[in-house]
Each structure stands twice: as C-alpha cells, then as structure tokens.
C-alpha cells in the first residue's frame, strides 16, 4: 500500500498566500470601479445618489466620487488621480482638453447661480442684475463670503466682480471651502454669497438667508464631463470612463438628471448634444 503524506505549509507561508489572494481580490474589485472627480455642488446637492445606482445597474460599475472645487478636480485629472471629471467651468475645461489632459468635453446639464443674503438686504442688491448687485455690495462694504477655492462657482464669482469693476469692499472674505460650508458661514453671520441653485435647494440651514438676485443670463451654469486622456496616464480606466459618459449623455442618463428633484423642484436640466 502506498501512503501519501500531505505537505502542510508553515504559518508564515500560509499568511503570505492569503495576503496574495486578498490582494488579487482587491485588484479585481478595483477593476470594477472608476474614480470620478466632481464638484462639491453636484455631490452636496444629492444628485449622485440618484445617478450612480442607475449607472451601476446599467453597467455593473461602481463610481467613487471625490468632491472638490472644479480647479482642484482638474488638477486631480492632470495628475492622473481620476478617470473622469464632472465639473462646471467651461473655459478651464476646454483648456484642459486643449492641453491634452482630457479626451473630449461633453456638455451634460445646467442650472444657474443665485446671489443669496439677508432677507432685509441691507446693501440693496435685490433684483435681476448680478453685476449691479455686486457694485452696490462693494459700495456698502457688505459682508460677502467667497468660496475662494478655485471652484467653478468661485471662478464665476470672480468674473462677476470683474464686470462690476468696483473692488470688493471691506466686507469680502474667502473661506477656502466648499459650497455647503460657505453657505453655513453666510447663514450664521448674515452675509451674502453666490451659490449654485442645486446646493441652495438642498441646503437646510438657511437661517435669515433668501434669494436676492436670480434670472440674469450671465448666471447660467453649465456642467461638462471629460474622460482623462490615457495617452497622458496609461493607468486610467478610459473605456470604463467612456461607459459613464455614454450613459449620462444617453436618454436614460439625461432622464435621471431631469427626474432629480427636491421639494418638487428640479435642480438640474439635461442638455447633452442630440
């Protein structure tokens, strides 16, 4: 009779093999996800809570969202730390693509910016003209909270101040923070702030703040989506990033955007090219 003896690996070998299996499993799981660098406005509005489960159902892919200001999101794309971007500073986005960091920019949806401030509006800004409102705010040295974070909202705000051509007044201060924290500061201190409407509608700590300026065509706020260029960063998941882009531009993705509401009010309006 032949007796077979089974080899039992030492504990340290078994631990090494187990670590290898876990690493392989982690790599497999990672392959089923993409990293999306996006704005705090889209994340804080709750939009991704609507979009991402629907995209996963359609594609099987998870999306890890890193919420930053648009400028920081673009920097993340330049470093190759994200697979795609969902941002809202068209000039900066187009430059990102022109410089070879992105494959192509696609318009995906829009909403608008609004000026909010104390209901009694001590600087007299209320109306439709954002440039005139900021001119009055500067003249009154009114308290204004700027994000100051190179976000799309911050870039738009600086454009409006430049058009006002009146300085910013002694009440201007930057928080270097996202839209939600900036609104919290404005609410607690009775200050003015520029915000996207989506974040405002989802913001609950309004205190005495109210919408004072809206409806100016210059307050239009366009969002774009861009895949990071694999020619610059070979490790990015370009094909999976394109799957997200194709889905969010499709009738199903555009409908998911249009269907997202808070209190019955639509936050974003899809406008992908037909």
TrEMBL record:
Domain PBP: 27-251
Taxonomy, superkingdom: Bacteria
Pfam families: PBP_like_2
Annotated keywords: Signal
Segments passing through the bilayer: none
SUPFAM superfamilies: Periplasmic binding protein-like II
Signal sequence segment: 1-31
Protein name: Tungsten ABC transporter substrate-binding protein
Species annotation: Verminephrobacter aporrectodeae subsp. tuberculatae
